[in-house]
């Protein structure tokens, strides 16, 4: 920023100054001032110079130069006794190669860090924001102006402008304060504030953020005012109280902190209370909606590279909310951070220690079915402990062993609970054939598990024990070949499980898996195609299990194909086929186009009720959707639309259409949204239809707000 204590006009280097001043500059009359290191900290030049008593008068292209800036004017007078310099007539201050400040007259008191400018014009080259005032005073890095106009639009005819009686700009803090500002669209006042202050820099500072204002038929008038608090560089928070006149009030608080490894811990908690009348009207299960979320991931938390355990890590993804309505009452970012698959919300907390040969882990997983009024009967895994011994050589070449032990605590407040212990001991022999084109492995595996039940008053269960010894054989091949115009890699693998002996006693619930008690044959593979520049354009993966001793001997067939064309078009097809039902159990198809000015997609997804359940991948429940959307950019306007349609129930789950237009200093947008969302009532989850219009307006870079109007 401008440092007037050493002279108002300055330049970053003589080379930068030469871009604006003719090459014969050094031949002009000049006065120089040096510091104790004999460095020129001040230079005064002009076409003609006169010396009268204690004043030096420069006329014609008068120029003042310092270390970082320089100033040009028609005329300049330097008082050698008072140390005051006055520049007048088309005064222009340059920072680097950009115009920074304009005035008709500047008075600078060199030793007092003070100047007076009349009229005054200042512009920030990064944001384009300019400040125009009748006059300005500069005192100790603070500008004070009168009759001020502020905008980022064209100076001649700005679309929007703030007109204030006075303003104050702190150069060091990059903070602008204005009194009695009026927001004008062209010259028409539309909003008045007694006082405003905001940052013009990129450093985080505490203050008010953009408010959210809306209106809904059900919730009434909505006002939310986020408050940003940044007391230190390492952490900040956003506190957002809100009120909905027909529903109630609450708050949400977002917290962020950066650790010594530049990893961010993000947390959010909030509360919203409904009025008694609102709860009765909609028969809500909960009058209070509250929740807590936390996300954090880091490696090398406690370990050092020279220790036996040279690596550790923690992963936390925790979301605990009272009901699904909590996400509706907060912002979209909060919802998207949660691990929410359909109605199932999952929280995870994992920690591991790793050495060259050993691995220790402790995990916790908690499920919340948001369609239920209570999750007291939902089984949780709190905690799960694992010890794993990496594969290590055993006596002979190509002979290896490993070991894995896990203990899982299946718990819940209501219903039976269980503690499961299980151990795997594989012994592996591997061998390559046909010049390493084929790899073969054979492994006898010893397995044991024990289940101890508790809280079995409602359902009598006997503790379970299971022992088995079985064999696993694998054969795989990895091939790579380069053709004239493309490259091809293919990996094929088949595995066969042969039971040896097993012994089972007691009860085993459906979620327990007992390996080695049946013959299994699995085939799988993947292949990838690359163009001449090694860019992937086609991938293909498939899996097929066979259960040789079951009535339904073939498991689901999985097949996925992705095709990329011309860096813009892409196609995805993922299919799960049930041989038992002779039908496709789950399928996803999507076509995308990602161009420079147009993005479009069309997709289809369905899952049958008989599809295999996989909680880890969110595979559960029936679904039938068509999805489509596009965004198109024109020269001065962007339009967009999207829709999600349930073709079985024959209704639009969500759709929206809108536009946004913007120029450098001003933008506004309008969209109409229709969505059906769940609401938890005393009778369970019920669907509710919500339609609203969202109007967005931005006065760049100062003001931005969303106005939401619902039915």
Automatic annotation (TrEMBL):
HAMAP family: LPS_assembly_LptD. It comes from the Bacteria. Residues 71-174 form the Organic solvent tolerance-like N-terminal domain. This is LPS-assembly protein LptD. Keywords: Cell outer membrane, Membrane. It comes from Helicobacter ganmani. PANTHER family: LPS-ASSEMBLY PROTEIN, LPS-ASSEMBLY PROTEIN LPTD. InterPro entries: LipoPS_assembly_LptD, LptD, OstA-like_N. One of its GO terms (cellular component) is cell outer membrane. One of its GO terms (biological process) is lipopolysaccharide transport. Pfam families: LptD_N.
